[in-house]
């Protein structure tokens, strides 16, 4: 990291303000080549984080913009290096000229996520906080923002560190007893070791259990809309989106494939999946759509089962509802409420999921559906708690949990302490991958691919 990087740190669109960002050993020197303060000396003589008004010049010396500049010196900066920023007017053309001027002055183009990667490599952020930065950039709901902010504040890192330190204490005690047998050190007691492993396993269980909630907040909840042909699935799909995305006709079997879109409902992001009507068919194309519909239902974390209010409920309707409730949280949606009601068989209320009645074309009942979703996925959950938010974190935490369990089982089976400690050290290595203590470079590359250029 001996070179100086530069990038446009704001979105490539017309806006009031656009930011050019620099980081590296020559960041302030490069800034002084392109920026002239209106008063006083160069930026190299200015204090950290002071905003200075002046002129930004292009590579040809012509004035591009009148803007503000600021510097932050190592190590008290975001990246841990000397950094500088130019706060300009938000013309993409002006920002592009400014960036060219920075390149001509000695900087190079930053790669995606390179600023945050340098912060990680310089010890300013651990890997969980770096991933939280990406989560915050991509947050689509208030719940996702709060969750990312909590993780950026260290909620997950603190929880992992506490487990890691407890396991490190077990290993340190073992090696102290083994390496200095003549010293006055408490012996290695199996009962105490068992209690420590059980406590760590419970905390790792809690972390693993948090993954479903963390992923749902960040990535959205896969929500399959299922039902017989012409039950109103595409109409409800369009109504929830607020636009005509899926084709709607009176002809049964119009939807031949799954259609997916994201929508913010009840403070959560739902990944709505409009599916083909579930029925037996001789049409090869429709049959493929039905198979994909069943696969979508199998992978969903929320299922909306649609019954047509105007048609009699069939055994197939009831069987579909039973299948859905066995797979995931389910809401029964009786559609076409604006039409006359058909007879409904007598069903055991205790076996029915939450139910709402809607008329998608008129919007009637959509509020009730949103309330039913909110009841199943409360937006007011504790976002300050430590949560796992992506598959990489879950995989590492799972390996740590399994290693701790193997150690506990080995202890119960009467294995020698060194065999138990080998499992404990494996768990510590997996936890180190979560925070970046032991992470491989290829894994780091994949993590920072999520970032945008300039961050």
Please provide a written account of the structure.
The structure is a single chain. The chain has 455 residues and is of the alpha/beta class. The protein has two domains: 5-126, Probable tRNA modification gtpase trme, domain 1 (Gyrase A, domain 2, 2-Layer Sandwich), CATH 3.30.1360; 139-435, 3-Layer(aba) Sandwich (Rossmann fold), CATH 3.40.50. Helices cover 45% and strands 17% of the residues. It contains 14 helices and 13 strands. The chain has helices at 27-34, 92-104, 114-121, 127-138, 142-152, 155-179, 190-219, 233-241, 284-299, 315-327, 366-376, 391-412, 417-435, 441-448; strands at 5-8, 15-23, 35-37, 52-57, 63-72, 83-90, 108-109, 221-227, 259-265, 268-274, 302-308, 330-335, 355-357. The strands form two sheets. Strands 3-4-5-6-2-1-7 form a seven-stranded mixed beta sheet. It has a six-stranded mixed beta sheet with strand order 9-10-8-11-12-13, with helices on both faces. The longest helix is centred in the middle third of the chain and has 30 residues, at 190-219.
């Amino acid at each position: 990291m001996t070179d100086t990087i530069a990038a446009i740190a704001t979105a490539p669109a017309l806006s009031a303000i656009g930011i050019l960002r620099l980081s590296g050993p020559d960041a302030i020197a490069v800034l002084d080549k392109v920026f002239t303060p209106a008063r006083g000396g160069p930026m190299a003589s200015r204090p950290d984080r002071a905003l200075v008004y002046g002129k930004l010049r292009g590579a040809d010396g012509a004035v591009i913009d009148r803007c503000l500049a600021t510097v932050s010196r190592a190590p008290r900066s975001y990246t841990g290096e000397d950094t500088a920023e130019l706060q300009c007017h938000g013309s993409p053309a002006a920002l592009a000229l400014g960036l060219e001027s920075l390149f001509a002055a000695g900087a190079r183009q930053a790669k995606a996520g390179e600023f945050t990667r340098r912060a990680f490599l310089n010890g300013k952020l651990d890997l969980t906080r770096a991933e939280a930065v990406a989560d915050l950039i991509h947050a689509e709901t208030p719940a996702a923002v709060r969750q990312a902010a909590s993780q950026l504040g260290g909620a997950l890192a603190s929880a992992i560190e506490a487990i890691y330190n407890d396991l490190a204490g077990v290993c340190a005690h073992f090696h102290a007893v083994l390496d200095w047998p003549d010293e006055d050190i408490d012996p290695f007691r199996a009962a105490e070791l068992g209690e420590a492993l059980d406590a760590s396993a419970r905390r790792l269980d809690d972390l693993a259990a948090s993954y479903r909630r963390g992923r749902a907040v960040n990535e959205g909840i896969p929500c399959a809309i299922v039902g017989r042909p012409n039950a109103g699935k595409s109409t409800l799909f369009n109504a929830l989106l607020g636009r005509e995305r899926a084709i709607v006709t009176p002809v049964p079997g119009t939807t031949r494939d799954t259609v997916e879109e994201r929508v913010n409902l009840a403070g959560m992001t739902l990944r709505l999946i409009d599916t083909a009507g579930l029925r037996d068919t001789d049409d090869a194309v429709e049959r493929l759509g039905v198979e994909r519909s069943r696969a979508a239902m199998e992978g969903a974390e929320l299922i909306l089962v649609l019954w047509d209010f105007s048609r009699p409920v069939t055994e197939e309707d009831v069987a579909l509802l039973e299948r859905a409730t066995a797979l995931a949280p389910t809401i029964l949606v009786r559609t076409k409420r604006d039409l006359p009601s058909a007879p409904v068989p007598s069903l055991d209320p205790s076996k029915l999921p939450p139910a709402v009645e809607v008329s998608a074309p008129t919007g009637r009942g959509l509020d009730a559906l949103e309330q039913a979703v909110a009841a199943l996925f409360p937006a007011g959950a504790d976002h300050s708690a430590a949560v796992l938010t992506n598959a990489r974190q879950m995989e590492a935490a799972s390996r740590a949990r399994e290693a701790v369990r193997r150690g506990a089982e080995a202890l119960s089976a009467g294995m020698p302490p060194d065999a138990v400690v080998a499992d404990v050290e494996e768990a510590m290595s997996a936890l180190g991958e979560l925070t970046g203590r032991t992470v491989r470079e290829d894994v780091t590359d994949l993590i920072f691919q999520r970032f945008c250029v300039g961050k």
